[in-house]
Amino acid sequence: LSAYSFNFLVFAMDEYTYMNAAEAFLTGDLSLTLEGERGRFPMFPAALSFFYPPFGTELGGKLFNLLAGALGVAATYFLARLLFGGKAAFWAALVLATNPFYVFLSTRVLTEPLFFLLLVVDAYFLYRAEKDGRWLAAFGFCTGLLVLTRFIGAYVGLVALAYFWKNGKLK
């Protein structure tokens, strides 16, 4: 379904904003972004800019999010397998991969697929850190990327910090 979206080249305003910001990251020319849009979180446009040289702006943006969406499904499978076993992991990945809203967002040049991927990877690191404190650095790094993608990622870090503090894991 996601590949079918390559037939459509209509972009929403936010998509153009992210594509212009990615172009600005690539060229170093901030005049490519609207002045009021320069305060957006930088992780998504920075990551997006790596797909521009080989694929161009529109195709690169769509390919990046298709990849992030597919990796989000794979990450969901591996996290669910770790937590609940193979059968539950299969169903979790299947439900996500066939969710119309997730498929739609994976075809748009928006932050949601990258945010979801980072959120699932962050949940994996959090699970590992709860059992072995050496994973806290990976969790913190991924939480930082999450916050740089969308501000709501800060809540993940705050909830985890409160959890670790309450359970005496932070000293």
Question: How would you characterize the overall build of this protein?
Answer:
- This protein is mainly α.
- The protein is 70% helix and 0% strand.
- It contains 9 helices and no strands.
- α4 crosses α6 and α7 (112-131) packs parallel to α9.
- The radius of gyration is 17 Å and the shape is globular.
- It starts with 12 loop residues before the first helix and ends in a 5-residue tail after the last helix.
- The model has no long low-confidence stretch (mean pLDDT 87).
The backbone outline, from C-alpha atoms, is globular
Tell me the structural class: mainly alpha
- Please give the share of residues in helix: over 70%
Provide the succession of SSEs: HHHHHHHHH
Major sheet characteristics = none
Terminal Cα span: 49 Å
Write down how many β-strands occur, each being a DSSP E stretch of 2 or more residues: 0
Number of helical segments? 9
Tell me the fraction of residues in β-strands, as a range.
under 5%
* Mean residue pLDDT: 87
Low-confidence stretches: none
Radius of gyration in whole Å, from Cα?
17 Å
Regarding quaternary structure, how should these chains be classified?
Answer: single chain
